[in-house]
């Protein structure tokens, strides 16, 4: 993922959260970008979204809306964004 693509994904994510198009049930309680790049090897970022519960059904529903907002939302501006892989991990706290 390029830095320019990351900027677009992040902008689409924030606008999707503000506009309440991703999370209809007030389930998301945080998000961040994690830089997983290694010096000289590759550029890699991870977008994280934190939810209040570990409800897998809600997570699956959000994956669909995330794809629409992050990828399709950015393509309206002429950007060629690639579909993202989503992974659901539960915290064991």
Protein architecture, described:
By secondary structure, the chain is α+β, with helices and mostly antiparallel strands. It has one domain (3-71). It has two helices and two strands, in the order H-E-E-H. A two-stranded antiparallel ribbon has the order 1-2. The model has no long low-confidence stretch (mean pLDDT 80).
Into how many domains do the coordinates divide?
A: 1
Measured as a percent range, the helix fraction is: 25-40%
Helix tally? Answer: 2
- What composes the largest sheet? 2 strands, antiparallel
Radius of gyration: 14 Å
How far the N terminus sits from the C terminus, by CA atoms, comes to: 31 Å
> Count of DSSP E strands?
2
By secondary-structure content and strand pairing, the structural class works out as: alpha+beta
SSE layout:
Elements: H1 3-18, E1 28-35, E2 45-51, H2 56-75
Antiparallel strand pairs: 1-2
Summarize the structure.
With 93 residues, the chain is an alpha+beta fold. Helix content is 39%, strand content 16%. The longest helix has 20 residues, at 56-75.
Give me some keywords for this one.
single chain; 93 residues; alpha+beta; 2 helices; 2 strands; 39% helix
């Amino acid at each position: 993922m390029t830095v320019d693509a990351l900027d677009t994904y992040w902008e689409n994510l924030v606008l999707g959260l503000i506009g309440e198009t991703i999370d209809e049930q007030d389930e998301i309680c945080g998000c961040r970008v994690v830089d997983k790049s290694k010096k000289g090897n590759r550029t890699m970022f991870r977008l994280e979204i934190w939810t209040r519960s570990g409800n897998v059904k809600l997570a699956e529903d959000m994956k669909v809306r995330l794809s629409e907002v992050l990828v399709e939302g950015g393509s309206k501006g002429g950007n060629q964004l690639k579909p993202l892989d989503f992974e659901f991990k539960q915290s064991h706290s």
